[in-house]
Amino acid sequence: MMIKAPGSDRRFSFITALGIVFSAAVFWLAIAPIWGQTKVNQAQAANSETFHWNKPAWAPTPPVPADNPMSDAKVALGRFLFYDTRLSIDNTISCGSCHQQARAFTDGQPLHRGVNGLPGKRNAMTLTNVAYLPSYTWANPQIKSLERQMLLPLFGDHPLEMGMAGHETELFARLSSDQDYPRRFAAAFPEDGGRIDLHNIARAIAAFERTLLSFDSPYDRYKHGDPNAISPAAKRGEALFFGERLECYHCHSGINFTDNYVQQGLAFPETGFHNTGLYNEDGMGAYKSWDHGLRDVTSNDEDEGAFRTPTLRNIAVTGPYMHDGSLSTLESVIGQHYAVKGHAALSSNGPNPLRSDFIEGFSISDAETEDLVEFLDSLTDQQFLTNLAFSDPASDSREKRGAR
Ligand code: HEC
Ligand code: HEC
Fold first, then answer.
1. What confidence tens digit (pLDDT) does each residue in 63-88 have?
2. 218-380 CATH
């Protein structure tokens, strides 16, 4: 399925992608006549172009699934559901518990605890610009939509997060007895009478997540017209980031600083999963026994320790870092990880032999590290962290007055 690009970098090959698209097209032709919704869905897909996205003109239009067109009513409903603790079995946790706006929708902890108090195994991810991702979570190329991703925290038991498996009926009853949800679902899903079910819950939250767009950092303003939007130190850091000594940009590329990318109308999404040499438990490249990254999904030995390249937008506020939150500061990510050929190099087992060819190690002075951190800081979008449209509606007084 995958070709082996240099080192342990793996991308789906163009030929594979072509094959997939071709078989998808054949499949579609076969089922189109019995798929009554075809025309409707195609018309709705165009809605991605007409929906008013809160983004500058230069930013590409996010893709939207044909069966979940954007609407203001749906996004508004999704925002309420995202912050609603009734979505967890003991009414204690909402999506917003682990994905907090002030931290660019992360939680500041290495591993967040779910409803039973047991720690999870991974670091909560930022939701910055998730609309442009071809797959979701740290290392699963098979989870291709936001609608599908959220079933993991809601119903997953490994780790247990919101604990709703087997309690779907109770969830629908909780929401149906609310004074506002029935009318909100009716406004969001007029086509099926505002049914309160899993399909619509997932579609509303996903629509809200697609609006979480961040393109107003000082670095964006610098790149799009204001030469003084970032400091001289940040400009020196930018040169380091995009230079061949540090090689950061090979993986943290494009508008979201990740090689995982899709936009409206793009036929072949970009996907990049890499082993950066964080661990080397057995001297042969093994990661921790409870998390092998991409290999846990593909069962391919070459995928040991490979994780999806995360975005670096808002990175200054999303620590601690890496898939398990094991590095606490940006300085440690630079000095204790990338500069030394991956953090494992500091252990007695030495550098991970399966790591990407781009993780070569480099020497960097303290002043240069400061410059690089200053550049990474310039990717923080204050407007995104404070925009009321993304905030918990419970703290929104206008909304409260409206509901009364
Ligand atoms: C207990 C903490 C917790 C809760 C509650 C939670 N998440 Fe997450 N979220 C995480 C963690 C941890 C990950 C990374 C999971 C992984 O890689 O396996 C994640 C990943 C994600 C991602 C993937 C982002 C990306 O870049 O691929 C999305 C989207 C997401 N969560 C949305 C949600 C939504 C929507 C809800 C509510 C239905 C929710 N989360 C509830 C902790 C949580
Ligand atoms: C070979 C591809 C690759 C290169 C080169 C690379 N990164 Fe990464 N980066 C990744 C991947 C993959 C992860 C997640 C790894 C993990 O969690 O195990 C990551 C994680 C990070 C994180 C933590 C993100 C978070 O949300 O926790 C930061 C910060 C970061 N990289 C910055 C850099 C900088 C600065 C450079 C250059 C010195 C660099 N990266 C070079 C692929 C790369």
1. 999 999 999 999 999 999 999 999 99
2. 1.10.760.10
**Residue tagged 């040169």 (tokens):** 239
* Ligand nearest to the backbone CA of 111: 1
- Which pLDDT score is estimated for 306? 98
Which helix (H) or strand (E) is 202 found in, with range? helix 198-210
CATH of 22-214, one of 1.10.10.10, 3.30.70.360, 2.70.40.10, 1.10.760.10: 1.10.760.10
pLDDT tens-place string over residues 176-208: 999 999 999 999 999 999 999 999 999 999 999
Range 273-293 burial, b when 16+ CB lie within 10 A, else e: bbbbbbbbeeeebbbeeebbb
User: Which ligand has an atom closest to residue 368 CA?
Assistant: 2
Q: Kindly report the pTM of this predicted structure.
A: 0.90
Among protein residues, the one whose CA lies closest to atom 10 of ligand 1? 124
How many helices (H) and strands (E) the chain has is answered by 17, 4
283 touches 313 (CB < 8 A): no
Residues with CB under 6 A from ligand 2: 246-248, 250-252, 274, 276, 278, 307, 309-310, 312, 315, 318, 321-323, 330, 333-334, 338, 356, 358-359
Q: Is the CB of 206 under 6 A from ligand 1?
A: no
Q: Average of pLDDT values for 5-28?
A: 44
Q: Where are the beta strands (DSSP E) in 176-277?
A: 273-274
Query: Which H helix or E strand runs over 203?
Result: helix 198-210
Question: Helices (DSSP H) in 125-197: which residue ranges?
Answer: 146-149, 151-155, 168-176, 181-188
Stretch(es) of the chain classified as CATH 1.10.760.10 = 22-214, 218-380
* Nearest-atom index, ligand 2, CA of 241: 37
What mean pLDDT value characterizes the chain? 88
Q: What angle do CA 223, 227, 232 make, to 5 degrees?
A: 105
Q: What is the CA radius of gyration of the chain?
A: 22
Ligand 2: which of 252, 281, 304, 376 to mutate, most ligand atoms within 8 Å of CB?
252
